[in-house]
Amino acid sequence: MPTPTEPYPRSVLDLLVAAGNRPVFEHGPRTVTGAQMLGIVRRIAAGLRAAAIGPGDGLAMMLGVTSEAFAATIAGYVVGARVVGVRPGLSDGQLRHVLHQDIAAVVTDAATRPEHAPRTLTVSELTAAPDEVGQLRLSGRPEDVARLVYTSGSTGTPKACAQTYAAMNAAWTARPATWPPAIRELASRLQRYLVFGSLSSQVMMEYGVLTLAAGGTMVVADSPTFPDAITRHRASASVITVPRLYKLVAAQRSAPADLSSLRALMVSGSPLEASRLREARDVLGPVVFQGYGQTETGTISMATPSDIPPSVGFPPDIIDIVIRDADGRPVPPGVDGELYVRTPAQAIGYWAEPAETAEVFIDGWVRTRDLGHFDDDGRLYLAGRTRDVIIVNANLHYAGPIERVLATSPDVAEAYVIGAPDEDTGEAVHAFVVPAPNRAPDLDSLRTLVSERLGAACVPATVTIIDEAPLAPNGKPDKRLLIAAIP
């Protein structure tokens, strides 16, 4: 794939120039055009340079979801800094860790100095700087780290994925001519894309840039409650987690809202069970896009509303995927193995984590620790995680297949399986299920279902009914929090 000759974020700045007087950001009564957003970027970049922030400097963003937050992120790239998004909800210890990762300054919305911050720069101070004359000077060097994106922590402690300016330039998000077919279809539906939570989210920000490239508008939802946010803002698209999707489907069944504006829901964070996807399509229409990717790699594949569940679609030609068995040998179609992936914009490793980097980034490939297979036509299917295993009587059993079997019951809306120490078997399977609306799962029947499909060793020692799965700060189900709830 050809890459631009100028450093990132030239492709994004060109999109703002092309947008001109078209609205690109909407927050309540305030509308910001492409030209106005470019002006904010220029002023913040000038302010950062005046504050002696430049190539190689760590720049942490502790900002809300505003046009200035978007502009500050782009301006950080303009001056060649190492941009670090700080998501809300971090514990004091996590925040201290992030702000001590070679951070030169913290950009904030207000004049309050965040605890642990080495130096604070407010948006108001930065935007007060005189604008630079002429075309913006881009200072990013190809080999420098452009951003650190923290992983979700779903397999342990969050780590900072380091992505270089060269990798950012190789990404296709801001360049329509390089879009794969699934992304091109999604882009056609991004007229009004809801943004909420935090622009430090890689997913939220990348879809924002895609919206800009597609000619759409980012619309801020201060209260991202579905379906209210969709109807209130007449949104055409939004990112949604699996638990939120389930709740939206249930809400539409019981009290349908006017979702006629909705054209795309981008499911993110965790796999979507096939029967639940079919239900979502029945209730919401052909609007569900299921993305598969990792912080380390970016988007790997995307299923469009017309794809066959539970496939996550056809990976683009620019993505290299090899599926290997436990001995590292490639497996044929139809056989599950671990996915090793290579993408143009992948990270180069984990910041200040050489041991973890060596374990995951191997000879140019990213070891995803996800299990899956291709079918004969090249569709990709996921089957769980290599670390999501339960060792029963010295035999490995993956949680994913057990969860999917439980979720096939019409009485079950969601299923989560974990392992816990057991005196007799080493570890035992424990299941937690969220009932389908107005249904009461029979726990013995669920155990029988697992036994018939997967064998006695996979039968849960306990099955517990819960109202909803506990969530991590990023909105993903956090199964580790279920351990304390084992009967």
From TrEMBL:
CDD domains named in the record: AFD_class_I (cd04433)
Residue ranges occupied by any AMP-dependent synthetase/ligase domain in the UniProt entry: 21-351
Question: Where is each AMP-binding enzyme C-terminal domain found?
Answer: 402-476
Which Gene3D superfamilies does the annotation name? 3.30.300.30, N-terminal domain of ligase-like
Q: Which UniProt keywords apply?
A: Ligase
Signal sequence segment: none
The organism's place on the tree of life at top rank: Bacteria
Transmembrane portions of the chain: none
- Kindly give the InterPro entries that the UniProt entry links to this protein: AMP-bd_C, AMP-bd_C_sf, AMP-binding_CS, AMP-dep_synth/lig_dom, ANL_N_sf, ATP-dep_AMP-bd_enzyme
| Gene Ontology MF terms | ligase activity
Name of the molecule in the record: Fatty acid--CoA ligase family protein
What species is given as this protein's source? Nonomuraea helvata
